[in-house]
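Researcher: I'm preparing a figure for a lab meeting and need a structural model of a single chain. I don't have an experimental structure, so a prediction will have to do for now. The sequence is pasted below. Please return the structure as tokens so I can convert it later.
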Amino acid sequence: MMELQRKGVLAGLLLLLYPLILPSLFGAPSHASPSTFSEWNIPKPRHLRLLRSALQGQGETSNEKQSDLCVPLADQGWRPCVESGNATSLLDKDEGYLQVFLDGGLNQQRMGICDAVAVAKILNATLVIPHFEVNPVWRDSSSFMDIFDVDHFINVLKDDISIVKELPDEFSWSTREYYSTAIRATRIKTAPVHASANWYLENVLPVVRSYGIAAISPFSHRLTFDNLPMDIQRLRCKVNFQALAFVPHIRELGDALIHRLRYPSGRTGLPDSNYLKETTDLIDNRGPRKFVVLHLRFDKDMAAHSACDFGGGKAEKLALAKYRQVIWQGRVLNSRFTDEELRSQGRCPLTPEEIGLLLAALGFDNSTRLYLASHKVYGGEARISTLRKLFPLMEDKKSLGSSEERALIKGKTSLLAAVDYYVGLHSDIFISASPGNMHNAMVGHRTYKNLKTVRPNMALLGQLFLNKTISWSEFQKAVVEGHEDRQGQIRIRKPKQSIYTYPAPDCMCNA
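Model: Understood. Here is the structure written out token by token.
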């Protein structure tokens, strides 16, 4: 009995001390850094057999196979056709002003901007440069003008719609703060997801005519992809692929990183702050190198939202479960399925180890130049180490650019993502570790430009990784066969699918 009491006292003491020993489990969740658990409990490789085979076979990858992977896509017979016709010319007098308030990350905001232009055209209204809400996950307060070249945006669309940077003085009261304090007659907060053009004409146009202005919030995904006039669809394409250009300092930094990836021998340590103002004449004798951009979408929020097991043990499961409950209050429906069920359905994001094995199976080896486009990876360097073993020539913004060059984007998630987007758009191959807004936006943009983009077959990979006895040759054969038609081939958009992910046939014409 005394022994049981002693154990009970010890257990109680441990419970009291637990929050002090492991504060990350009991404290407020941090969006900026990986969980303490993932750093204390360094996850071991989950697919050790495959990893060993991949590492042993790296030198066996032929140069011919390596070069074949980076061969540009053949002409598929489709051409961009986003130029608006006479149907989109401006009317003599518009109805009033349209404001939209956009949330989400960079790529969700990007889609919202395109839709806002389309809705303004439908209403014959003047669009106010969209307002970006502070992202509750990334806590980034970057504005439209911080990310996108606003003068370019207005100039490209000047013949399609009227756009203003700010409201005139008589509407200066129409601010985000004004709408957050009470119910306002000029705010539209009932716009359904994928609303039709008629919905806006029936519900928003009367408000614009009555008050001279209407503000729509929330607005993300508030315009249908189907049953719209072709000139409206083409206008959305024009915004996405022509009008939305990043601010000059983003493009300049992106060009510098791309140059260093293509001409690595020209790097003699980190460049000085004048690098971006100069043209580098150092050219490798072998010509520009090929490089692959990997969007490693494996941040803490992604890991928690997926409800999958990532090999961090019981402590990691507890940390993610608490984080999931605090952030999404039980709205993660995946949590009702087992890890095996989620993986076999392709609903688990690929870990750095798994995406590395995919790349190795496709034929990339340790001579591949890999650019890592990612927010802070859940688990930090410990989680990335396996990927780095497979691809030692892996770079990112920090390794390629000096602190002076990165000063304007430091700590600003949207600007960091914009640099990655720019580099990804100019890479020889782009691949994302799991579907998401960045993946969808890049697939659409690179399809529009006929560039090679690998779309991981998530269901196939989930099933292969569940097979703990599969040999490397079997794994490689299945991966290659399962991705033959997933490298950027044109896929015609189906009803309800996004025009921004599948630009044919709305944004592209079959020549």
